Amino acid sequence: LKHLLTVEALSDQEVMGLIHRGQAFKHGSIWLPEKKQYFVANLFFENSTRTHKSFEIAEKKLGIDVVDFAADTSSVQKGETLYDTVLTMSAIGVDCVVIRHGDENYYDQLIQSPSIQSSVINGGDGSGQHPTQCLLDLMTIYEEFGSFKGLNVAIIGDITHSRVAKSNMQMLNRLGANVYFSGPRQWYDEIFDVYGTYLPIDELISEMDVLMMLRVQHERHDPDESFSKQEYHHKFGLTVERAKQMKKGAIIMHPAPVNRDVEIADSLVEGLQSRIVKQMTNGVYVRMAILEAVLQGKA
Ligand code: CP
């Protein structure tokens, strides 16, 4: 791989290769790098805890030199653009940049530039795509069920604003899972119908193998929009009562951060059926696999 920008651009074979390599890293495999020294910079222009810090841990576990960068103390504050920031990183010898940015498809200009040599890993582009979260979610599902074919997976909540939902619906559908959607109609778009079926939450919960709850993304909503946490939880959330209807062996996922008692009841977050903590852990290992593939130019 030269870059990782969307999951759609990966072949099924590349996806499975990254999942298996993530599992191998989790079980102690090591990287034998082709070069003595690699530099990676994590350029986060939107807030992040999991993606940013798990990339940092993945890089350090691989022995990569992590170039410190914080948008609020960089020349971005003097008006420097994303393009010129990445051009600078490339010029000073950074092999790969991990970028989170609020603009969808921010990477187009970067990868088309003949002056930029650095590889780009997309750590989330606005409401566009979140390919590394998708891969860690796939790894978590694969660890649980050993396959995607015929699994019933529901993606529930603020789907329109979720880059995680978009990456996951595309890839789960392609890998043979039956994808379902639920949540407020105003946060659902009919264009998602090509990947799955929209149903009220109470009609699908007992049939699902995976319930993937999404965060309500207030930062992407109209600030004048009224919102009641209790009402959302009651109508669209995974309540304790609803969780009792889940089938045996079914799991709960959430990309986090979690709004406890909004999209999911507080007591379910670390409960027996939850894989939310495991998702975070798997994020480190799948990101090791992604870094290795990008830095060595192969999946
Ligand atoms: N899941 C996820 O992307 O979390 P962060 O925003 O904390 O990186």
TrEMBL record:
* PROSITE patterns referenced in this protein's UniProt entry, alphabetically: CARBAMOYLTRANSFERASE
Q: Which residue intervals define the domain Aspartate/ornithine carbamoyltransferase carbamoyl-P binding in the entry?
A: 2-143
Arranged from A to Z, the UniProt key words for this protein are:
Pyrimidine biosynthesis, Transferase
Report the top EC class in one word: transferase
Gene3D superfamilies named among the record's database cross-references: Aspartate/ornithine carbamoyltransferase
The pathway it acts in is: Pyrimidine metabolism; UMP biosynthesis via de novo pathway; (S)-dihydroorotate from bicarbonate: step 2/3
Question: Which reaction is this enzyme known to catalyze?
Answer: carbamoyl phosphate + L-aspartate = N-carbamoyl-L-aspartate + phosphate + H(+)
Residues engaged in binding L-aspartate:
K78, R163, R215
So where does carbamoyl phosphate get bound? R50, T51, R100, H130, Q133, A256, P257
State the EC number(s): 2.1.3.2
> What Pfam families does the record tag this protein with?
OTCace, OTCace_N
Per the database record, which ranges form the Aspartate/ornithine carbamoyltransferase Asp/Orn-binding domain? 149-293
Q: What does this protein do?
A: Catalyzes the condensation of carbamoyl phosphate and aspartate to form carbamoyl aspartate and inorganic phosphate, the committed step in the de novo pyrimidine nucleotide biosynthesis pathway.
Family membership noted in the UniProt record: Belongs to the aspartate/ornithine carbamoyltransferase superfamily. ATCase family.
In Swiss-Prot or TrEMBL terms, this protein is called Aspartate carbamoyltransferase
Q: Which organism is it from?
A: Tetragenococcus solitarius
Q: Which gene encodes it?
A: pyrB
